[in-house]
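Project standup — Tuesday

K.O.: blocked on the structure for the chain from last sprint. Re-posting the sequence here as requested.
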Amino acid sequence: WFLAVQAIGERRLSDEPREASRRGSTFLSAILQRKWAQDRINTRVIHIVDTQDHASWSSLQASYELDSRQEIKLQADFFRGRSAVSFGAFKARSRVSISHRLEY
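H.V.: unblocked you, prediction finished:
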């Protein structure tokens, strides 16, 4: 198991009155990862939240190593929030994907 938790503070310096209400924010993130079957199966969950705008990004990923040169991966990314804020600006890019990596 692997777990990492992080808090990042942001402070904007601005003299403009319209910016006074949005001078700082805190982002909280967590990553949880686990490998199974002699590291051939890998799962990972990432969640990041912007506490000021209540926007977030969640990423779920599972991969399976077929051999040392091939891997199949299933991934889902979900962005939430109002369109004009941090992760909300990427709502249209929320996705579910599957990929096959082949190396030579």
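K.O.: great, moving the ticket to review. The CA atoms of residues 3 and 32 lie 5 Å apart. The chain has a mean pLDDT of 89.
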